[in-house]
Design brief:
Blueprint lengths: L3 H12 L4 H7 L1 H22 L1 H15 L12 H29 L5 H28 L13 H41 L3
Helix pairs in contact: 1-2, 1-5, 1-6, 1-7, 3-4, 3-5, 4-5, 4-7, 6-7
């Protein structure tokens, strides 16, 4: 889901006729959101709820942060898209930081290398699926070779529809993560309560 910034950047170029540099500058709040999420939100959430519960709550918040993409239209102001990107980038990096800390914290000391390698491999598979699924709906909407000026109004409508679809898919992915974490939290709590 963190790769969504790439598609937001493409949308900024084509929906608002920005140059690549202007789109990159417009994404700075989202990058700042990622830093704030990874450092401050993750730390606060882990101290408040512990890593598993914090991961669960952050995944739910991440899921909800995708819903404003359902309102995207070609006429939607650029600040709206930038604000959405900043919020989900911050929540996404916070969730990623918390979950990485929890996975590595639970790994047996003698197998942290294997756990880290598995986590990295799973992240790579997830990133590839994200490009294949989320990227297709955005990239297919624009004639990349023709540049921003060559995008028709029908393509702009298709691009906005692609962003809406990405919002739904990303919301469902984050909700699936929330469901899995909810199950893990309940099983962990039940195991902690059971007599040894």
């Amino acid at each position: 889901l963190v790769g969504m910034l790439t598609y937001i950047s493409i949308a900024l170029e084509y929906l608002y006729d920005l140059t690549s540099l202007q789109a990159a500058i417009a994404i700075v709040p989202a990058q700042a959101g990622a830093v704030v999420g990874a450092k401050f939100v993750a730390q606060w959430a882990m101290h408040r709820w512990g890593s598993l519960r914090a991961g669960r709550y952050l995944m739910l918040a991440l899921s909800l942060s995708m819903l404003p993409l359902l309102l995207m239209q070609p006429s939607t102001p650029a600040w709206y898209l930038v604000a959405i990107a900043a919020v989900f980038s911050g929540l996404g990096m916070a969730a990623l930081t918390v979950l990485n800390a929890d996975v590595m914290g639970r790994a047996p000391h003698d197998s942290t290398g294997a756990v880290s390698a598995f986590r990295a491999a799973a992240s790579s598979v997830g990133g590839a699926l994200g490009v294949a699924v989320l990227g297709t709906s955005v990239i297919s909407a624009v004639n990349v070779d023709g540049g921003q000026g060559a995008v028709s109004s029908a393509q702009l409508d298709q691009l906005a529809a692609g962003l809406r679809l990405d919002g739904v898919i990303a919301c469902l992915i984050a909700l699936a993560g929330w469901v899995v974490l909810t199950i893990v939290v309940r099983r962990t709590a039940a195991a902690d309560r059971s007599p040894v």
